[in-house]
Specification:
single chain, 263 residues, mainly beta, Methylamine Dehydrogenase, Chain H, 4-stranded antiparallel beta sheet
Length: 263
């Protein structure tokens, strides 16, 4: 992809098992993908090198060198050299972790099964549990800044923090569908959430209200596995037999849809 997401090229990676679950861009040429193993590219995704035999489900980078990956049975890994090498950290839980969001070189929040929320403020030396108020699976977490963050999960649950992940409060999503992705657009008030059964929600008031986005009828049953923003440009990816990519350049509304045949 060289044109802001208008066209996409396939790159195959031998993941060994489990498939790939998340990817993060570090700079214009470097990215890290996680799944059955951890992979790294330095040539805009043309080639990928396996850099760790560890499996992971979520990944986040604070800057060009420092990142955190999380996975099954509470596994947490940290890199300080741009993803070349990864060191295990103790999370204090055996619950599967599905996502992590870092908002400076020391602070991060991870989420997972049974309502697990973990927070570190010392670069992962210690991860402390925080009360989520739920036992539902939390699948994704994102932060707009050092204070404002959102976590989403099973049954339409949306949680919000205004103090960097220390405390969390529920928001009304208006849906019962499982939610898999969350991302902030250009400010802390504007965010999007994605999930099953065509669920693509958007807020422009910090989560006080969430509204379903208008999509083509053909996409009503799609599962939207993830969503990501860089400024006002956003991408959502989904599937239902065929695969689909949604793109917006206005912070979430309207969207442009591209549907491709399954590979």
């Amino acid at each position: 992809m060289e044109d802001g997401g208008r066209h996409w090229e396939v790159r195959n990676i031998d993941d060994g098992h489990g498939g790939l679950s998340k990817v993060v861009l570090i700079d214009q040429t470097t990215a890290i993908a996680v799944g059955g193993f951890i992979f790294r590219t330095t040539d805009r995704g043309r080639t990928w090198m396996r850099v760790s035999v560890q499996s992971a489900r979520g990944i986040s980078f604070e800057n060009a060198t420092t990142g955190t990956a999380v996975g099954v049975e509470g596994r947490v890994f940290r890199t300080t050299d741009g993803g070349l090498n990864w060191v295990a950290q103790s999370s204090g839980t055996t619950n599967d972790l599905h996502d992590v969001s870092s908002f400076d070189s020391n602070a991060a929040v991870a989420v997972g099964d049974r309502g697990t929320i973990l927070r570190t403020i010392d670069g992962g030396k210690t991860w402390l549990p925080r009360n989520s108020g739920t036992t539902s699976t939390l699948a994704a977490v994102a932060f707009a800044n050092v204070n404002s963050g959102t976590a989403v999960g099973a049954g339409g649950i949306i949680l919000h923090t205004a103090d960097g992940g220390e405390t969390w409060s529920p928001q009304v999503s208006g849906v019962t569908a499982d939610l898999f992705g969350v991302a902030y657009a250009h400010d802390a008030d504007t965010a999007a959430v994605s999930g099953v059964l065509g669920t693509l929600l958007r807020t422009t008031d910090g989560g006080a209200t969430w509204r379903q986005q208008e999509l083509p009828t053909a996409l009503d049953s799609f599962t939207w596995n993830g969503v990501s923003f860089k400024g006002g440009v956003g991408i959502a990816v989904g599937s239902l037999g065929s695969s689909a990519i949604l793109r917006t350049v206005t912070g979430g509304e309207p969207v442009i849809c591209t549907v491709s045949e399954p590979l």
